[in-house]
Structure formats: structure tokens, C-alpha cells
Amino acid sequence: MRAITSEIASQPALWRKAAGLAPAAAGMLPAPGEPAAAIGCGTSHHIALAYAALREEKNLGTTDAAIASGLSPHRSYGRVVAISRSGTTTEVLRTLEGLKGRTATVAVTAVPDSPVAAAADDTIVLDFADEQSVVQTRFATTALALLRAHVGDRLEAAIADGEAALARALPAGPSEFTQFVFLGQGWTVGLANEAALKLREAASAWTEAYPAMEYRHGPISATGPGTLVWALGAVDPGVLADAADTGAIIVNEGSDPMAELVRIQRMAVELAEAQGLDPDHPKHLTRSVVLP
Predict the structure, then answer these.
(1) Residues 251, 228 contacting (CB under 8 angstroms)
(2) What pLDDT tens digit does each residue of the chain (292 aa) get?
(3) Taking Cα atoms as reference points, which of 58, 60, 100 lies closest to residue 80?
(4) Which of 72, 100, 223, 287 is buried most, with the most CB atoms less than 10 Å from its CB?
(5) Where are the domains of the chain?
(6) CATH architecture designation of domain 3-154
(7) Considering only CA atoms, which of 186, 196, 177, 194 is closest in space to residue 249?
């Protein structure tokens, strides 16, 4: 069995474990009303986007999300949350070092003795969610489970939906499609971006992601037969109806968005294997981007 396959399957149990850690982590994560930012690169940036939007939706304080190299020096935060599976990503490390003495920082990482962990004021270690595969799956969703629990989400339904997602049939054979489009709204825009990245990384697929209401403002022109349009979370029915009118196949099943992401990860692996690709070791990618 490939590493990524077992890592995908482990996710619901790890979400439960992460939710259990939330009370102990509460003092390290942004307090209600505290202005905050979340940073990361690649997959970790997508999780930062989801967390920032969710925290603002719950009126817990102004929360920005930024790629680690793009955090504005002109904004003030009470706390910055840095997400990095390996704890070695150069951009994250440089940003944390630049914040020293100015802003409280907390790293969410799988590696406790990493440079990122050392550079942050506090560290939340999710070593039980670390991965062998280059392609991130369970670390990202486990970090999000922790952050969701911290902002008050109850995860019982998400965990149950995640367990069901491991066995539920995929909408169709992935090889039947030439284009994959993922739509989100609010905090699930970050997950839509992550869904697209999984197919792009693992299977070199043509994938796109959009805030659902923006999809009709141009991108839908490339949609048609051979396109799979997948909604993560609540999406305006009119958007999906317009996509269906192009001949695209629509997936809108209403499960928790993290559980939908599990199914999309499975689809990425299936598509990669159908093309003779190794989803554990995608071309041109490494576990972490470490710059000279």
C-alpha cells in the first residue's frame, strides 16, 4: 500500500485526537477578539485561509491569511499562527524570525525539534499526523481540525462524515474527466484551493478552484462535457445549475467539507495511478522547500 493511501485513511481518527488537544492549546492560539494572522506555504497556506475565514465568520477577531513570504509588514497583530508540516520551510522561518520581539507567534508543526518550532514563541506539535508522502493530506486536515475545535466547531459530524468518505464511491471514474473545478464559499474557499492542488500535485491534472460566486464571472466559459464541478460546503444552487447547463458533472453532496476533501484526496490517488504516476513522490516536488 502506498503511504498516501494509509495516511488518507487515518484522518478521521486523527481529527478526533486533534479536537481533544484544543483545550490545552487554547492559551497558545489567538484569543477571542485578538487580531491575528495565519501563514503557510502551499497546502499550509490553504489551511490558513480556511482558518482565517472561519474565525472571522464566528466574529472572533480580525484574521488575515497570507503566504509566508507575503505577510504585510504594515499590519499589526496580537498573534501570528504559522503552519508548517516539516518545520523547515524557508519562507515560514524567515517570517517568524522577522516577527521576533514584535508579535507573539505560534507554530503548528509535525516536527518538534525543527527550525520553525525553535523560531516561534510557542509550538503545537502534531507529530502523530506526520507523513511519509510528499503530498500532504492528514497533517493539513488534522491542523484544521485543531483550529476548528479551537474556534468552537463541534467535530462529531465531520468525523462521522470523514469515516463514511473513506468507503463512499467516487462520483465517476476520474479518468473520464479532462478538467476538475472546485468551488467553495466563505471558509471553504481555502479547501477548494487545497482540493485543486491535490489533483495538480499527485496527478498533474487540469484543476481550478474559485469562490463559488466568482465562478460565473469568466471561469465557467471553460466548462463543459468532461468537466467535474465539485462543491465543498454550501454553494449557491444557481451557480451549480449554470455549471450543469454546460454539460459538466456536478458533485454537491452536503457532507462536511473536510470529509469532501478526503474523497477528493482519494480521487487524486486513483487518477495518478491510472496514469502510471507515483502520488507519494510527484515530479519536481520535495517534502519541504528549503532555499539556500
Answers:
(1) yes
(2) 799 999 999 999 999 999 999 999 999 999 999 999 999 999 999 999 999 999 999 999 999 999 999 999 999 999 999 999 999 999 999 999 999 999 999 999 999 999 999 999 999 999 999 999 999 999 999 999 999 999 999 999 999 999 999 999 998 888 899 999 999 999 999 999 999 999 999 999 999 999 999 999 999 999 999 999 999 999 999 999 999 999 999 999 999 999 999 999 999 999 999 999 999 999 888 888 888 8
(3) 100
(4) 223
(5) 3-154, 159-274
(6) 3-Layer(aba) Sandwich (3.40)
(7) 177
105 pairs with which residues across the strands?
A: 80
* Architecture of the domain delimited by 159-274: 3-Layer(aba) Sandwich (3.40)
Q: Rounded to an integer, what distance in angstroms lies between the CA atom of residue 54 and that of residue 201? A: 26
- Unique residue bearing C-alpha cell 460565473: 216
